[in-house]
Amino acid sequence: MNILVTGGAGYIGSTTVKRLIEQGHTVTVYDNLVYGHEDAVECELIKGDLVDKDFLFSSLEGKSFDAVIHFAAYAQAGESVQNPYKYFYNNIVGGLNLLELMVKENIKYIIFSSTCAIFGTPDPLPVTEDSTKHPESPYGESKLMFEKILAWYDDIYGIKHVNLRYFNAAGAGLEGDLGERHDPETHIIPIAIQVALGNKDSFSLFGTDYPTKDGTCIRDYIHIEDLAIGHIQALDHVMKENKSNAFNLGTGNGYSNREVVDMVKKVSGVDFKVEEKERRAGDPPMIYADNTKAKNFLGFDPQYSDLETIVTSAYNWHKKHSS
After folding, report:
1. What global pTM score does this model have?
2. Top-level CATH class of 172-220+252-321?
3. Which positions are annotated as active-site residues?
4. Of 106, 13, 14, 40, whose CA–CA distance to 67 is shortest?
């Protein structure tokens, strides 16, 4: 198939593109390279911003696509609270322009990179697809808004979608060529690895008095290789069934922040300094997915998302690319 991947130069997008190409698909990446990296793309790359509708339409004129996988979005919840306009404008306007392109070019299938942030602080756990949705940031709200927009474009134009709400993407490509490059970095695993590699003096552990097994927050970490497989499974599913759907992509388990730090110490062999600090506002004690629906409908079965595999792959990549 011919597949358009927006945001395909980014962390999860580039891994998915690599797997699509391996399966024989022809892929075109559309990315503004604000957060993506040109050297992560091994297919045709069009440098463009989805909010520029004229360039989007002209740059893709005459091309034919069977489906779209839409990763392109700003994705920092904390920043979105400081700058909501940036997030609503980019994530909604860019997405709308993409959908209008799909209407114009008669592209009938889209896989949407959504997020567990649409659920806010979940209660009860684990989080199912039908759990109450109350985003606690403009980022999460923008993703939920676009899910609702997709439903209308299905009703009106027959464009079928799959919303993939993934939890904490982690790890690096198993071949060691693709990894997490955010600036600034906000995710716990790469930050701990930076400390282990000597690029930071200490690791800050925010909150040690949560009602969890060791007092620190628990999160559901999903390896980017498993996420990439999930996107391809979702694409196969929607094109076969011709029905829109939504799935949680997680492992169904969680690891605590302290377990993550201990695993980075084990893998790196470095007993680095950890500073215990007060809780951060907005950090729920636990979030983990119920992935039963994805298993039943997609055959989704994470193979690489045990904590040691995640941390080892990430550590090897960061060690290789450490400045």
Report:
1. 0.95
2. alpha beta
3. 139
4. 106
